[in-house]
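Lay summary. Proteins are chains of building blocks that fold into shapes, and those shapes determine what they do. In this project we predict the shape from the chain. Here is one chain we studied, written as its sequence of building blocks.
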Amino acid sequence: MFLSSVDKHPWFSSDTIDLFVLFEGFDFIVHHNVYK
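And here is the predicted shape, written in a compact code that computers can read:
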């Protein structure tokens, strides 16, 4: 889960988290389309 990842990396800034969420969303969409 993403929240547990945040707990493991408390040094994340809000900007880093936003970029990580966007990247994860993009990665999910790409994989969903590739493996659908």
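What the prediction tells us: The radius of gyration is 12 Å.
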